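Weekly structure sync, notes
Attendees: PL, DS, HV (note-taker this week)

Item 1: Structural maintenance of chromosomes protein 5
DS walked through the input record. Source organism listed as Bathycoccus prasinos. Sequence as pasted into the shared doc:
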Amino acid sequence: MNPIQDSENMDPTRTKKRNASAQSLATTTQKKHQRQGEKHPLSDYAAGSITKIVLSNFMTYSSVSLTPGPDLNVLIGANGTGKSSFVCAIALGLNGKTDLLGRAKELSEFVKRGETKATIEITLKRTSGGGDEVDVVKRTLTKAKGGTKANTGSAWHINGQPSNSAEVDLLVKGKHHVELGNLTNFLPQDKVASFAGLSETDKLSTTETTVNNGELWKLHEELIAKKENIRNDERRLSMLQHSLDQNTRSLQTLSADKEKVEKQQEFQTKAEEYKMKIPWIRFEKKKVEFSKIKEKYAESKEKLRGCLKEKEIAAKPVKELEVLEHKMGKEYSVKKKATMDAQVKERTALTKLRGLGTTYDDKAGLLSSANRKEKDAEKTVNRIKADIKNITQAMSEIPEVADTNLDLLKTLKAKYESVRKDRIPLDTRIDQASMRLRPAEQRVRNLEIRQSDLDSVRGKKLKALTHAHRNAINMTEVDKEVRDLAKRLNKEKKLKGPVLCEIECNNQNNQTFLQKHLGLSMLSSYVIDDDQELLGAINNLFKTKRWHLMCNNQTDTNEHVRGANFKNEYKAYGVSETLDLTFTAPNCVMKTLVALNRVDKAAIADVKVMDAAKYQEMVNSKLGKIGQVYTTKNVFIELRSRYNSKVTFETEEMRPLNFRLFGAQVDREDMEKVKRDLAEARSQVQELQKDQNDIVEQSNALKRREMEAERAWREEKARLNKPKSDKQRLEAKLRSLQESYKLAKANTNLSATREQLKKSLATLATQRAQQVQTYVAVLDALFAARKEQDLAELKYTDTKIRLMHYKNIEAQVRDDCDKVADAHDEITEKKQRSARQCKEAKEEADAEAPLTEELKKKMESMPDDEDELLKEVELWEEKASAVVCNNPTAMQQYKKYEAEKKDLKEKIAALAPTVNGGQEVIKGLKEQWLPQLQKVLGEISVAFHTNCRQVGIHGEVRLREPDDPDEFSQYALDIHVKFREGEPLHALDKNRQSGGERAVATMLYLISLQNLTKCPFRVVDEINQGMDPKNERKVFKQMVDSASEPSTPQCFLLTPKLLNGLEYNDNVTVLCIFNGYRPGAGLHLQSELQPCTP
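Item 1 (cont.): predicted structure, written out as tokens:
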């Protein structure tokens, strides 16, 4: 999108007025930059200013380019056209967080729907003055293939080179001093209320970060941090001194118990010495047990060796017999295969012998059949001769057709065709009359329906909806087609609508509230009582006809409880009832209006009681769910952000309706016209019906004559065709008999065939005798092969039996060997376990009582029996127990307190100098910070007071100092304003001033910072919304004047609308935003709007 540049209006009258206004403005405002052509030269832009924004597939934009001016840029466009998309692009394109915008939290939600990648390219002026160097920051957002919101990657480029977010921050924040998180520099649409809602300390912090390149803020933060560190150090030093005193008292208390503990430890040491010999005695026992198990292990090993030798001897005959079994098996398989081959030869010879017998029987049957066939053929020849003679005689008796008979046939046919030719034009005339009659009848029906609609309340409401749609949609026609569709589907009872026709409301004020709340789109929509098929059919009809109407399917069949959200406590605020109590409608319609328009959460109030303050008080009291209230003058709305829990309040004026949909009146003139048209249409239908009936009577008379002529012609034609058809039938039969005669004649002499069959029979008899001899030889070979197979099978079976016997012996020996091996494994495990226990016992003894020379000498005088040692241990432990000490841990505590006392003294000595030096550092920083802050806030207060005075209000900025001047975190900034004479100054607060008053004060405060900020550009989104026209005009003039002053940053002001006749100058760049439906390619929108720009 290119900016629309300044030019004169094409209307001469308006041009003169605008020139006069410009001349008067020139006396007070000096041009800051001179535009050349459509764009400013780069030299006009300050360092860090935005010179161009290019977006691709970002939010609602597929592709767009924005070129702002160096001073004040006014981005204007209706709500939803994409203005705030550029605010989001500036924030995200310069590495701002999504939290700054108060909108979506995930980057994926800023990629245009249906796309996987979006790009933001922002061009920043590199240096001030005449240079043309720029820094181009490009960010590419890429959705992951999985489609999850959290997996959206970012790729950065600076001046075409790959980069990262840290380098972008270094360029944006470090070089160009852009602070997107500061609301005085970057104020998105959903954050406007946030500034007024900041605490006074946060307002001071936000202002400090804006002026003097944030140096005051850094000093303030350093003071807060150092003060907190010193406070922590003082607190820590006091705690250390207290701990030291307490430690000294504890040492004095523990000295007596310490001596008793030392005596008790002496007895316990003696008991421990006796205990140290016990593990060595236990080790000796384990050592003896291990020696015995080793002897048993040697015996078991020798026994296992003998069993393994017996196992080897038993396995030898098994291996030999397995080889023999394999050999016998192969011989048996060879003999078995030979037998099978002999069986195949036997079956082949037998099959051939049987085939020769079958062939011989077939030939003998053919010889017998030939004898019978010759006798039958002679009888057939005699019968066919007689039939041919009879047919020839019948053909000679068929009469000839005379020419006079043919002339009669032609005369009858000509008469039929003449009557038909006269009738056909009458059919055409009947069709033409019907075509003229049908539109006339349809017109009568339509006029009758129109008259009925005009007479009914429904018709009046449908006509009112048509008028509201500016005749773009004829709701009467829509209603007829929708109801015809429901009737064809046999679902008329499921259809409700339009909603306006289903609502009954008799109070005129309530009708106005309902029309305002529901809107034309909902009042024109249809509702279906839980039927998905009907919903799809109606939506397809709307799509085909291009009717932009809604159809809602209500699946909730529960009865709606009217007034469920209304409570008696609301009456104290003037609320009388909720909207769902003001009208009646079918349940499915009521449930739809509750779900989509929340008529159960909107209410009506008395204008004398309800105002903006009363409404906010009612909502904050949290009585219930009512969020929107109508009076005859205003509409009060509670707005909850979709992205966080913030709530704002708006007040709209209740403007008069352009047209009333409820209670529409009948157009009498239209009614009279419909009656006249209906009488005329009925008269025309009667005339057309009379003409059609006359033609039908003539056509019927000719049809009767045509049928009689056709019947006479066809009867004569059938009579004349009979001789010809009889002759053709007999000729065909004669040809068939002649063919049969030839075949029968050929079968009367078959002597040659009989002789050939006799020779074949003799040959077959010889072949059968030879095949019998062959079959006997093959059968003898089969018997011999079976004998050899049986012998080989006997040898093979004997070998397998012997092998099984020796395998059983081997298995018995193997089982015995396994038992011996198991016993040997068990004794081996015992040996290993005993060795391990012996080793563990020694390790335990070494761990509990290392065997030193001194310990050996002590053990020599001790008993060698474990029980005696335990008695000595018990004796010395009883002596230790006899020493009475109330604090058994006195020794450990005494040592602990001594160590702590030493540590505390060292810490106190190290910390004391740090506390004393920190106070001097804070004093120096405070002397550097506070005078500068007071000076800057004084300048801001003067500018704010001047700006407020120019718009007719009073305001000042004050620094609030705490009771303790060194409590730096308690310093605060108070913005005091008053909008009416006679009232004191009040702090700017979201709960005191209205939305418009806060917007005016916020905007004036931001303008007051214009000369002090080091940020190269500022963004303010829809701050003028909620202002009255007078304040909006004054604030806009302040914006223009401020932008015209030298050394002020670039500014972006976004708004959906501006007042007519505002004063502009060449420092203002107006950018019209209209993303969405675009006119045809033939329209040049920029060239059309260019003459109309200021």
